[in-house]
Write a structure and sequence with these properties.
Number of domains of chain A: 2
CATH architecture of the largest domain in chain A: 3-Layer(aba) Sandwich
Oligomer: homodimer
Structural class of chain A: alpha/beta
CATH topology of the largest domain in chain A: Rossmann fold
Catalytic activity (chains A, B): cytidine(34) in elongator tRNA(Met) + acetate + ATP = N(4)-acetylcytidine(34) in elongator tRNA(Met) + AMP + diphosphate
Protein name (chains A, B): tRNA(Met) cytidine acetate ligase
Radius of gyration of chain A: 20 Å
CATH class of the largest domain in chain A: Alpha Beta
Family (chains A, B): Belongs to the TmcAL family.
Number of strands of chain A: 7
Keywords (chains A, B): ATP-binding, Cytoplasm, Ligase, Nucleotide-binding, RNA-binding, tRNA processing, tRNA-binding
Organism (chains A, B): Exiguobacterium chiriqhucha RW-2
Chain lengths: 376, 376
């Protein structure tokens, strides 16, 4: 059985995702297309627009995805290299032959060559990286600057390139494949309207209208409040104003230089005002948002995974008939969690923190099981 | 200058409180009437209907109270003996000559005689108390049963008697005075409508109408949402579902037998359903509510005061011209906090936790200062 993996957030699943999954199935000759999907918070530290169960269901309902596997929060809300390590590890664990991702060029060789060059292992890179840090760059920016100074052929400042590069670095047994992303100048008669996920969310917030998504995603918008950071500001204020400084500094991504700034920002009336106060060259929006995720779920440093290239379990969120066959196929030698298990305690905390400002509509994590969707 | 103290919650200040304060001023020949008032949470572990600054202002606006001093949460959300110790210590610290309180009988001698008997110091009491605990009684109930079996002349199961008794036990330099409480059969032409504070709140929740209160309190109801536990349930759920069991057990009033019950109760959709699940003979409504206060403010056992008969500071919340004279009078040798001070860090946490579901209307604690009200 040929299985192709896609690493995604589906925040939300839109026409571009549909195109990518359908092309990947054809081009890799896949019997099953499996998405490894971020849970309640995205890699860049934002609450996903809709909860993971709903997003997984919508993806399978389109018929383009056969199985959605959770990328646990502890592994997924991190800089690109850790995110990629964990997601690729899951894809390999369920024995996907191919990993398919979107790119501007549609050409895989530039990515694999850049990864093979192994620039980060050179002393020159370490020097350049440290220098950029000393100049007040954020860790992500220092890393891409150091890389660019030594390997100018591949632009590591583009977000899609960063992820592709780290997928290629993390891949051990899986083959890489890329689909050219839809955008200006691209025409496919089956896809008439394409926006990025950010564009879809922004358009909805501004106009109340949902564009460029399949029906399953449209239903998500109709049936649920859309999560975004501003809704969490009262809870974050409560946490920032009631948590002693030394306790804050036990949390992931918060050091003694950030903690007093966070406490001060907790006095701002809105999330955007607080964020504006917090941004510096060193503390980017992404690093601040990840720190706020850590605060919201009280994620202590001692709860960080020991390694990121080995996720201890596979948790299906939604599947169709083909996905069910995949699960039956692998369950003998892969640790598959379909019911609640103590390993999911952290993820359950995440879900409770995520649900709070959304009105607690969905079932608590303990009672959720993967959803079978008869899409094929 | 003759000063009379009243220990109160003013939750909210009603006509009965007005009568008590006015009678106390006359009967004790007081130049100043000073209230020692619970902060954001009451002795029995409930969020006060309105925040302490508003409640203090309303009390002074009536003209019956000249100065309101905060009874800090760390000292005030406790069983009656600790509450009384701390409140009496404050009254004595500001050199009140008299402590006046309400009672059914209007007769002080039964109270002082019962306190002087010092029943709790006898071995017979210890035996009876332990026996009642072993029979599954709550600590409060075991204590009143043991007392009643040895001293039947004074009924320690009546809430007013309990407080009066502990005031008498705690008093060292202050003289006791009592006012007969208004109720059935009592007629004072100046007070036509009297309800208990519980009655006032319940009537408001049921009918939306405010009864039996002076204008200053009526304004509180008009200008603010009324706090009650149900509004805090989403936050409590968040805390109960995201706080590991061992961390819960570090909090005041939560042992390893209560913690799993609390976590289970966190799954209930409403506060009242959760409370109903939690109540037993051993865990009374009061003890559960106090535990919920501890959860809401993350009050660790290591943050308990070392002793309750010595509050480290005096913090005025509101005063009029007479109250200002009192403050000037004592400030040379009493630790008076009128501006923010690190000693108030815990109380600031309490206020932030209290404010959250009320829409954050008031100033943060750090920016609050006592209010002068020109009531006389």
């Amino acid at each position: 059985m040929r299985k192709t993996a896609i690493i995604a957030e589906y925040n939300p699943f839109h026409n571009g995702h549909l195109h990518q999954a359908e092309r990947a199935r054809i081009e890799t000759d896949a019997d099953a297309v499996i998405a490894v999907m971020s849970a309640q918070f995205t890699q860049r530290g934002e609450p996903a627009a809709f909860d993971k169960w709903s997003r997984a269901r919508a993806a399978v309902q389109t018929g383009a995805i056969d199985l959605v596997i959770e990328l646990p929060t502890r592994f997924g809300v991190h800089r690109a290299d850790r995110f990629a390590s964990a997601a690729v590890a899951i894809a390999e664990r369920v024995r996907c032959q191919t990993l398919s991702f979107g790119s501007e060029s549609g050409d895989i060789s530039a990515v694999t060559q850049a990864a093979a060059a192994n620039i980060e292992a050179t002393p020159a890179y370490q020097t350049a990286f440290k220098e950029a840090l000393d100049n007040g760059r954020s860790s992500a920016k220092a890393s891409s600057e150091a890389f660019g100074s030594l390997y100018p052929d591949f632009d590591l400042t583009l977000p899609n390139n960063i992820l592709a590069y780290h997928y290629a670095k993390a891949a051990t047994s899986i083959e890489l494949h890329t689909i050219r992303r839809l955008g200006a100048g691209y025409h496919d008669p089956s896809v008439s309207d394409v926006m990025s996920a950010t564009g879809v969310r922004a358009h909805y917030l501004e106009s109340g209208m949902v564009r460029a998504v399949p029906d399953a995603t449209r239903t998500l918008f109709q049936d649920n409040p859309m999560a975004h950071w501003s809704l969490y500001w009262p809870v974050l204020q409560y946490k920032l104003r009631t948590t002693p400084k030394d306790v804050l500094e036990q949390l992931v991504g918060i050091d003694s230089s950030l903690s007093p700034r966070l406490i001060q920002a907790g006095l701002e009336p809105t999330f955007e005002q607080a964020l504006a106060r917090l941004l510096t060259r060193r503390y980017t929006r992404t690093s601040i948002q990840r720190a706020l995720v850590a605060i919201l779920i009280h994620w202590r440093q001692d709860e960080l995974p020991e390694r990121f290239d080995d996720v201890p379990y596979i948790r299906p969120l939604a599947f169709n008939t083909i996905g069910r066959t995949v699960l039956k196929d692998i369950k003998k030698d892969v640790p598959l969690l379909s019911k609640y298990h103590p390993n999911l305690a952290f993820e359950a905390r995440v879900t409770e923190a995520y649900r709070l400002p959304l009105g607690n509509r969905s079932l608590v994590e303990h009672m959720q099981t993967p959803q079978f969707i008869d899409s094929k």
